[in-house]
Amino acid sequence: MSAVEVAPGQFTVSQNDWDLLPRPSRPPTVSVIVPFYEQQADLERLLVGIELQRGFVDVREVIVVDDGSADGPVVPDWYRGPRVVVLRQADNGFRAGAARNLGASRATSNVLLFLDADMVPSPDYVARMAEIPAVAPEAMVVGSRQHWDLEGWTAPQVRSWLEGGCRPARFKDPAWLAEGYARTRHLLDLTDRSYQWMISAVLGMSRRLFDELGGFDETICSYGGEDWDLAYRAQNVGALMAHRSAVAHHNGPDWSERDGRTQTKNVERRNLVARIPGRRDSLIGRFAHTVVRMDASDVDLDELTMCIASALSAEPTSIAILVEGLPIEAADPLAQDPRVHLGSLRPGMSDRAALSVQIMRPVRFGPRTFDRLLDLLAPGGPARLIVIHDKEVLLTCDTTRASRRVGRWSRTRDPDFLWTQLFGEPEQCAAASIDVTPVVGPADLTETFPR
After folding, report:
1. In this model, does residue 424 exceed pLDDT 90?
2. What is the pLDDT of residues 219-265, one digit of tens each?
3. Cα–Cα distance, 188 to 214 (Å, whole number)
4. pLDDT at 74 over 60
5. Which pLDDT does position 256 carry in this prediction?
6. Confidence band, pLDDT 50/70/90 cuts, at residue 273
7. CATH class label, 290-448
8. Crossing angle for the helix pair 226-236 and 400-409, nearest 10 degrees?
9. Residue 240's closest CA among 338, 139, 171?
10. I want to staple 254 with a disulfide (CB 3.0 to 4.6 A). Which of 45, 168, 174, 430 is the partner?
11. Mean pLDDT in the chain?
C-alpha cells in the first residue's frame, strides 16, 4: 500500500500509516508559536535553539504570545535567527490555548509548530516536525520531550551544549509517554485513546487542520486539558496522528514529579469531562459519543419505543438518538428523555461523536451491543459495518474518523475509491454476533417498563 495523492504534493494514507508518506519536495514554511508568562530566561534559551535550526525547512517566524506578564518578553540583542513577533493578551487566567490561537492567527506559514517557552529545540527539531504536515495537511505531530535542569544556564552555555559541549543535569523523562509511543509504534497502531499521547509543548500541524478544528478551546482558563481536547477532535475527524523523534529539551522535571499533582489533575479532568464524551462517565454530557438515527414515519410506535429503550439501556450516558418522521401526538414519552431528539439534534451535540448508527428497522439492543460494535470498528479495522439478519440489513455503522477523512478529499478523489483505499471494504456481521435482534410485533412494553 502506498500513499494516496489527493492534491498536487498532498497525500493521505490508509488507516494511520503515516510512515508511507513521501518527504516534501520543497522546504515547508514554518511558524513557531510560543506562549509566554514571566519566562525571559527560558525564552532566551529557546531562541538559542531556534538560531541553530538546520535542515530542509524554511522557518518564517517565531511568534511569542505573552499571557499577561508584568514583565513582557524581550528579544535579546544577540539574537540572529528568524524574525520574532511579540503579541500580548490580558492576564485573565491560565490561557495558553488562547495564546496559541492568537499566535496562529498571525502566522504566515503552512505549518504551525507549538513550543512552550521553557523548551529548547534540538537543531533538527523543526525540520523533523514539519516533514509530515507539509505533505499531509490532515496530520497532527507530536515531538519528544527530554527533561533537564536548565535553571541558571545562560544563552552561551545552552549554545555550547547544543553544539556538543557540557551537558546540564538530566531529570527522568515521563515513562507513560515513552511506553505509549513504544506500544503503538509511535502511533502507527492507533487506538481510540491515542489523543492522550499528543502534548502541546511539542505539537505541530498544518494551518489547514488547525483552522478546520477551530484551534484550541479558549474557554479552558486553567492548567491542563487543552491539548487533549484539541487532539481528540483531530483524531475524531480522521487526522493522521504521528510521533516523531524530534527532541525538544524541557527546563525542569515532568509534571508527574512535581508537588500538588492531584488537585491540578482534578481540574484537568473536569475540563476534559465537559468536552470529551466518555462512555463510562456517570454524567450525561453535552456531547454524544454515539449518534443513533432512525426514520419512524412508517414504524409501529410500540416497536420503536422498545428499540429506543434498549439502546438507552445499553449506552446510557453517551448516546443521542435522533428520531425523524414521528407524529407529534405519538411523541410522549420519548420526547421527555433528554437523550432522545425528535426531528433534529441539539446544536453541537454530535460534533464530537465517534460513531454513527443508522437503524433500518426496530431492533432490540443487548447490554454489550455498543461495546462489540466499537471493538469491531476500532482504529486499524474496518470503518463501516453492515449488520445483517436473515439477509435483511438491520443497522449500518460508520466511524466519524473515516467519514470525515473521506469527505475531506471527496472533491478531488472519488469517495468510494477513498473508502476502499483508506479503510477497506465495508464489513458485514451477523446481528447475533453483536447481540442485536429484530423487534417482531406485537411488542410487549410491560417487560421494558415494568410498572
Report:
1. yes
2. 887 777 899 999 999 999 999 999 999 999 999 998 765 555 667 77
3. 25
4. yes
5. 64
6. confident
7. alpha beta
8. 70
9. 139
10. 174
11. 93
Whether the Cβ atoms of residue 305 and residue 364 lie closer than 8 Å to each other = no
104: confidence class by pLDDT, cuts 50, 70, 90: very high
Angle of helix 226-236 relative to helix 96-106, nearest 10 degrees, comes to 60
90: its cell numbers = 490580558
Question: Which backbone phi and psi does 387 adopt, to 5 degrees?
Answer: -100, 125
Closest CA to 190 of 149, 228, 230, 236: 236
Give the integer Cα–Cα distance in Å for 120 and 383.
40
SS (H, E, C) the chain: CCCEEEECCEEECCCCCHHHCCCCCCCCEEEEEEEECCCHHHHHHHHHHHHCCCCCCEEEEEEEEECCCCCCCCCCCCCCCCEEEEEECCCCCCCHHHHHHHHHHHCCCCEEEEECCCEEECCCHHHHHHHHHHHCCCEEEEEEEEEEECCCCCHHHHHHHHCCCCCCEECCCCHHHHHHHHHCCCCCCCCCCHHHHCCCCEEEEEHHHHHHHCCCCCCCCCCCCHHHHHHHHHHHCCCEEEEEEEEEEEECCCHHHCCCHHHHHHHHHHHHHCCCCCCCCCCCCCCCCEEEEEECCCCCHHHHHHHHHHHHHHCCCCEEEEEECCCHHHCCCHHHCCCEEECCCCCCCCCCCCEEEEECCCEEECCCHHHHHHHHCCCCCCCEEEEEECCEEEEEEEEHHHHHHHHHHCCCCCHHHHHHHHHCCCEEEEHHHHCEEECCCCCCHHHHCCC
Length in residues, the chain: 451
Burial class (CB in 10 A: 0-12, 13-18, 19+), 440: exposed
Q: Which residue shows C-alpha cell 519528544?
A: 144
- pLDDT exceeds cutoff 80 at 285: yes
Structure-block grid coordinates of residue 38: 514571566
Residues of the chain with CATH 3.90.550.10: 4-273, 290-448
Q: How far is CA 21 from CA 65, 109, 235, in A?
A: 33, 21, 18
Q: Which residues of 224-238 are buried (b: 16+ CB within 10 A; e: fewer)?
A: bbbbbbbbbbbbbbb
Nearest to 93 by CA among 201, 219, 216, 228: 219
Homologous superfamily, domain 4-273: Spore Coat Polysaccharide Biosynthesis Protein SpsA; Chain A (3.90.550.10)
Cell of 234: 483531530
Gap between the Cα atoms of 180 and 186, Å rounded:
8
